[in-house]
Amino acid sequence: MITVVGMGTGAGAAVAEDVLAGARLVVGGQRHLAAVAVPEGAEQVVLGPLAPALDTIEAYVGKGEPVVVLASGDPGFFGIVRALVERFTSDALDVRPGVSSVATAFARAGLTWDDAVVVSAHGRDLRTAVNACRTHPKVAVLTGPGAGPAELGAALTHRTGERVLVVASALGSGAEQVERVTPAEAAARDWGTAVSVVLCLDEARVLGAVRTVAGAAVGPAQWALDEREFAHRDSMITKFEVRALALARLGPRLGELVWDVGSGSGSVAVECARLGAAVTAVEKTLDGVERIRANAEAHGVDVHTVHGAAPTVLSDLDDPDAVFVGGGGRELPAIVTACARRARRTVVVAMAALDRVPAVREALSAAGLDVDGVLLQSSRLAPLPGDVTRLAATNPVFLLWGVRTPESRTPVYREGVAS
Description:
Blueprint: E1 2-6, H1 12-20, E2 25-28, H2 30-34, E3 43-46, H3 50-62, E4 67-71, H4 81-88, E5 93-96, H5 101-109, E6 117-120, H6 126-135, E7 138-142, H7 149-156, E8 164-169, E9 177-181, H8 183-187, E10 195-201, H9 240-250, E11 257-261, H10 267-274, E12 278-283, H11 286-298, E13 304-307, E14 322-325, H12 332-342, E15 346-351, H13 357-366, E16 370-376, E17 379-384, E18 388-393, E19 397-403, E20 413-414, E21 417-418
Parallel strand pairs: 1-4, 1-5, 2-3, 2-4, 6-7, 11-12, 11-14, 12-13, 14-15
Antiparallel strand pairs: 7-10, 8-9, 8-10, 15-19, 16-19, 17-18, 20-21
Helix pairs in contact: 6-7, 12-13
């Protein structure tokens, strides 16, 4: 049997004593091993690279000798339990969870966390955590080297609405510190190695509705909302039939970033945010920017707006996972080219003019994307006098999309430099 003891936030050491007595092998971090009374004669393995430790554990298990693994917090929450189950099966484990750093951090902040999104940036790309923080009002980020409060703060400083970072360090120890800072303040400090977790809070939205399902909110009840759900100018809005297919091809989801270029009313931007993605809406008119912000607020989502003309303003933005291009005029081929070079996954373009289709298709293809598209024509039910109904045709729209598949993958370009 392998006994896995979660050391919690300082309370786990006492729990460990009753299982340590007969252990022939004790595995854990240096600070965990120092905090317990390892039996005399038992081998100790300091956790570093995981594979050698698992090999040593397997050798002891093969001889039928008891093993104790000391782990941080709750070992079943982004912890070592996953690796142990994959190697030895769950039947070989006796897991004794401790209080996780996430639970403790939210307790220190005086907040519930059943509606929080928890993202691990330890040994992972920070951009997933950043994008979750951009869209969700309550996020816990498990930090790691190169992905701490300073890096998180720097990424959030100019790309999102008001956020507060709660930086929790050395939780449960005599050196515990819990500090509330702005992203800019976090970016300007050296936080050392004692940080346990960072909470990112949008305090205007942090008290959400009562939940029955923990974690990220369940997706919206519907999408491709009626145009009447958005403020718009002179019917300049992506119609819901077009928006439905555009959303299907964009595939917006939590942890990703979507650009809505030529956003207009922001209907696509708002819908992508409702589906969990972080969104940057680019709009060249000032009244359009205000309209996007109003629509985002009306639907309870956070959309980062950029006032300026594409493709010029795109160079200052973080690389997107997906892009929707809904405007552009004569600049459309150049805009699509800039977007297609930067997009990690897909670009979707809506246009009414037949003449622009070949150039857009070529721009997508030249960036290494697999291209497809449709002409969408629909007719809606419309009432006539005498309690009868007719079909009212909407304007036809071309929808083209390019997808970056493994076979078609090319470098992502930023300001002319391949990355």
